[in-house]
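re: ur msg from earlier - yeah i can do the iron/sulfur cluster complex, just paste it... oh wait u already did. ok heres what im feeding in:
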Amino acid sequence: MNHKQEEILKLKEEKNAIILAHNYQTQEIQEIADFLGDSLELCIKASQIEDADLVVFCGVDFMAETAAILNPSKKILIPDPQAECPMAHMLPAEDVIKYKKRYPQAAVVLYVNTLAEAKAEADILCTSANAAQVVESLDEDQILFGPDMNLASFVQKRTDKEIIPIPEVGYCYVHKMFNTGDVTFSRENYPDAEVLVHPECDAEVQEAADQILSTGGMLRHVAASSNKSFLIGTEVDMVTRLRRENPDKLIYPLLDEAICETMKRHTLDKVKNSLMEEKFQVKVPEDIADKARSAVERMLEVS
Ligand code: 13P
Ligand code: SF4
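and the outut:
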């Protein structure tokens, strides 16, 4: 631990705070987190917070909002309020309402990568770890699914239900960077490596890979596998966590440039400031939070 990290740990104790962080955070933030996980694990953890007075959330806007939705009486802080997920902003609530009018018989399944107002319009949420399971749990045969078109096509291949992507083209710019050439080229260099990609990658990249997994799924797979080397097709700091926790294995990024810029807005200085000044508080209006909470809780029951 460096000096700044030690200061944060001390402050955290004084303030009775906990730090939740997504797997894409930098190593120095991963090291000070009380809990590190994928979106589903972070939702579950956020639903179980009991004795902390403050929660500092090192992730993007929709993740911190979900924690606020699940904990209306707690102070949820985000160290940099500009840590936004561009994909979550591709499906505003008005658009969900428009699609619901066009397909009144369809169920609405939204990825947690949506803003609170859109979540409030969903029947149920999903993450990359449980999307197919959530869709299969529903009675409806027609599903409005958004905003990630690649996760929608991943689910379509695993269900007989009709999946209608909303919007037609919603995507993550980080996972869009991967192409099949990266898989072919990397396999030539590391012929023994197993290729793991995230379901936000394009369908052709998913087809070229060996496994399609959420970030939490990648962690479990690498720990349990007898393989020694892996190529990781998701945000580069996932490699950081995998390497730290699997020192006996060889873990390589499929693409060094796959960096989620907004995840990296959180720094140790900003985390310290967030704890000292108790800012920036994430607030979700009560009526929106109540509606969105039902959709999150319905997902947690299925998972
Ligand atoms: P995971 O839930 O797999 O961690 O994915 C979150 C995310 O934002 C992927 O880009
Ligand atoms: Fe959003 Fe993509 Fe960053 Fe995940 S990696 S938070 S989907 S921009």
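cool cool. DSSP finds 14 helices and twelve strands in the chain. ping me if u need the other ligands too
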